[in-house]
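Can anyone check this?
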Amino acid sequence: MEKNMNLTPEQQFHGLLSEITDKSPQDDLRAEFVFDDDMCAIIRLDAAAQTVLVEIFALDLSFHTGLARDVLMEGILQCNTIGTLGRPFFVGVDERDFVLIFNRLPLADLSSPRILEELDYLLEQSRAILDFLELLALGILPGAAEAPISADGPRPV
């Protein structure tokens, strides 16, 4: 998308979204995606209209309690530490207990190929983190082989 200095940040963002999806966004500031492996992503403009957030919803943590939850949270914190090395990304838990893998990108420097590249990168990281959490859970959850952690379950979008 060619930069037009006369466009508002909201118009710039909407233009970028229209380049990466054939669907009309739910509103001018957000687009949602569900991938073949049921990973969900949201690309949205922040409230200050200066930063684009790319978020991947990897796991519903609300099903896990006690020691299992504590160990998984420690694993998530370790993933967040690793995400600060090299090409950055962040791992967190939102108010609904969904594990998020996300990054913030300045709108001023953004293009549709860059958004797609970031989305691919975050999806790759999300899948690796989910695999890690599944392996971690296998060591702490009785019967985990019968009911492993997965991205299945309630979808956040």
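Reply from J.R.: I decoded it. The beta strands are 30-34, 40-45, 51-60, 90-93, 98-106.
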